[in-house]
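Why does this matter for the project? Reviewers at the last site visit asked to see concrete outputs rather than summary tables. In response, this paragraph embeds two records directly. Each consists of the residue sequence and, immediately after it, the corresponding structure tokens. Nothing has been edited or filtered.
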Amino acid sequence: MDAFYIIISTSLDEETLSATDTVKADKNLSQVEQAFRSYKTVDLKVGPIYHYTAERVKAHIFLCILSYYYVEWHMRELLAPILFDEDDWEAAAARKESVVSPAKKSEKAKNKANKKRTSDNLPVHSFQTLLDDLATIVKNTISTTIASKSFVFEKITQPTAIQQRAIDLLGISMICTQ
């Protein structure tokens, strides 16, 4: 394998942004790019923006991406036990030699990846496949007539075991109170 070097530079001084933090920021750039792709195409499909100056459009997009990235980051952190993502941060950090070395998975994360099952024997998902799975939970409106009386009610589909685990990890309720 050929060796190569990458030079990452910044206009900020060492006190503001250290060399280590510069490399971390560069590594996190791919996550921001993924969030932008999701924002524009896969998940949110952002439509027309009704701003008429370049500054307002840029500010609107920036705030939307920042919000999306923030929400996704928190969701990934909470859902890590059922995702292929790392969820034993202390063990992973203890094995990391430097910021430039590749991240090494913890034994827990390796087991999840190899077995494709969580510690409580549920299937492991990527973030996208879990979102797709959660999207199958729907609220149905049911209307029926019994003894010439019409009844209309709503019923939320019963979550599967993995969906219920995700709901529990996110700390959300399936009961709508509106």
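We now turn to the second protein, recorded in exactly the same manner.
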Amino acid sequence: MFDWGDIDKFFISFFIILPIVTLIHELGHYFFARLFGGTLDMQIGTGKKLFKLGPLQVNRVYFYDAWCQFSDLKWSNKVTRSFVYAGGALFNMASILILNWFILQQEIEPTLYTYQFAYFSFYYIFFSLYPIYYSSGHPSDGRAIYDTWKKGSPESDPIN
């Protein structure tokens, strides 16, 4: 049950852990875009820009939403584009496995925050790979993969 004594956990979960999971997801897209010779712009959050660091822009409402857009893949085909789209989910899964490895090795203690990190990561994996179009008209990562194989969609589509 949630009570006022849990408000600090709420703030840590939504304003620190969730943005870290989001950043890991976006870095997965970035890694594969760069691996295949492309460029990628990333934004975390909505609203006015707080700061920009290389291809990453962080906006004021940094804990809500994220997107990236890649282009100019040197090696551009269905497989490479699919890896770029799936990169976020792959990095989220890898982060869960790494976290669990550290817990199993007793390097870190399992806590509410490690549980929430894994929970948010699974959330990102599931909903990013669920093949839908968002209300903005942009495809989820799963939908972008599907469209790439079914229709050969353009590689410059924004991905969430």
